[in-house]
Design goal:
Blueprint: E1 6-12, E2 14-15, E3 27-28, H1 35-53, E4 57-65, H2 73-86, E5 88-99, H3 109-115, E6 119-125, H4 129-134, H5 141-153, E7 159-165, H6 172-183, E8 189-194, H7 202-205, H8 214-230, E9 234-237, E10 240-242, H9 250-256, E11 260-264, E12 269-274, E13 277-282, H10 287-295, E14 304-305, H11 308-319, E15 326-327, H12 328-335, H13 339-351, E16 355-357, E17 362-365, H14 367-371, H15 373-378
Parallel strand pairs: 1-4, 1-11, 2-3, 4-5, 5-6, 6-7, 7-8
Antiparallel strand pairs: 8-10, 9-10, 12-13, 13-14, 15-17, 16-17
Helix pairs in contact: 1-2, 1-10, 2-3, 6-8
Length: 384
């Protein structure tokens, strides 16, 4: 199996407050989260992961959370210096850090840029102050604008703004205003995704009033997509829009095309290819347990080799999110499976009109498949 591009994900797990819709591995920081202790644990984890990398070059780095901007630029710089000292990192590597308005005061965007971050992803979610309160966010629309102004002044020419739609009480008009407000700030990328009620969240246990019904949610999504296109953004994935191909999130594209990614941090998941095939692994989810494990010098997380069924499902779970789809030969390269196995997997979705193959042997979801993506992905849960 040819080895695909390699990325690195680092999870920084603390937030000022847990949002009621969030199902990520995030934890309320409290007054004094042990940030330096956690950075030290990440550095120990990187020692183990460098063995897994076996000299391969890191093409992208993503600092996710939680809220990474709760860590100071000095702490982020220490982490990135640790990466550079242990790995071969591409000179043009994309280095993204998630940042929330209302937490960037822990360090200025300019200081994070000096620390080695070259792309920011700003968790705005909405420009409607009432909607932000209902979502449990700690910032307001003015905080978003001030943060972005500082990001631009700091010299970032590549940054994302996260927006959610399908919010309680949201209309097509208010969703469109959110998009226009974000675009006015000049982001090169907008992530625009629907609020979903995930298990083990407050919203799942107690759904908020005023959530748009299915038809209304679809109208919001359709109108928003039209407005994004009119503002010069091009959709390349279900929820991802960029001003041009160069501003697509390279780290996420590597996920979606079933690339390899190393993982450090509490609850972080990795996937690596080797002579025996592709394997996945994960780190302890609880931050304290994670730090204790790293401090104890325990063995690195043991990879679990993916079966053929797992390979098909996980490849399709990601690649069919991309509007351009994937070429047949990429499936074979990244999974080690045959063209016949691909065609067997695609038979049912093809008959249902959920996928299509063009003359260049590129597979993609149809418009129907994109609309009912969860149903399409479920098609690959069956055995092949």
């Amino acid at each position: 199996m040819n080895k695909p591009p390699l990325s690195l994900y680092a999870h920084l797990p603390w937030c000022v407050r847990k949002c009621p819709y969030c199902d990520f591995n995030s934890h309320t920081a409290g007054d004094t989260p042990p940030k330096q202790r956690y950075i030290d644990a990440l550095l120990a984890d990187l020692d183990r992961e460098s063995e897994r990398a076996a000299g391969r070059t890191i093409e992208s780095i993503f600092l996710g959370g939680g809220t990474p901007s709760l860590f100071s630029p000095g702490e982020i710089g220490q982490l990135l210096e640790g990466v550079a000292g242990r790995f071969s990192v591409a000179t043009d590597a994309e280095v993204t850090m998630e940042a929330n308005p209302g937490t960037v005061e822990f360090g200025t965007p300019a200081a994070y840029r000096d620390a080695g971050v070259n792309r920011l992803s700003i968790g705005a979610q909405s420009f409607d102050d009432d909607a932000l309160k209902r979502l449990g966010r700690i910032h307001g629309s003015d905080d978003i604008r001030r943060t972005v102004e500082d990001v631009v002044t700091a010299g970032f020419d590549n940054f994302n703004i996260d927006l959610m739609h399908g919010l309680p009480g949201q209309t097509t008009e208010s969703a469109t205003i959110d998009i226009e407000s974000a675009a006015a700030l000049g982001p090169t990328h907008i992530s625009w995704y629907q609020l979903t009620l995930e298990p083990n969240t407050v919203f799942f246990a107690r759904p908020p009033d005023g959530l748009p019904q299915e038809e209304g949610a679809w109208e919001i999504q359709d109108a928003g997509a039209q407005r994004l296109r009119s503002l010069g953004y091009r959709q390349y994935e279900v929820s991802a829009w960029a001003v041009d191909e160069k501003r697509r999130c390279r780290h996420n594209v590597n996920y979606w095309l079933f690339g390899d990614y190393l993982a450090v941090g509490a609850g972080a998941h990795g996937k690596i290819s080797g002579s025996g095939g592709a394997a996945r692994y994960r780190k302890p989810a609880n931050p304290l347990q994670y730090m204790l494990a790293m401090e104890g010098g325990g063995a690195a997380a043991q990879p679990e080799l993916l079966s053929d069924d797992d390979l098909v499902f996980e490849f399709m779970l990601n690649a069919l999110r991309l509007l351009d789809g994937f070429p047949e030969n990429l499936f074979q390269e990244r999974t080690g499976l045959s063209r016949e196995q691909l065609e067997t997997a695609m038979r049912g979705p093809l008959e249902k009109g959920l996928v299509e193959r063009d003359a260049s042997n590129t597979w993609r979801a149809t418009a129907l498949g994109q609309q009912f993506l969860n149903d399409l992905q479920a098609e690959f849960l069956r055995k092949f």
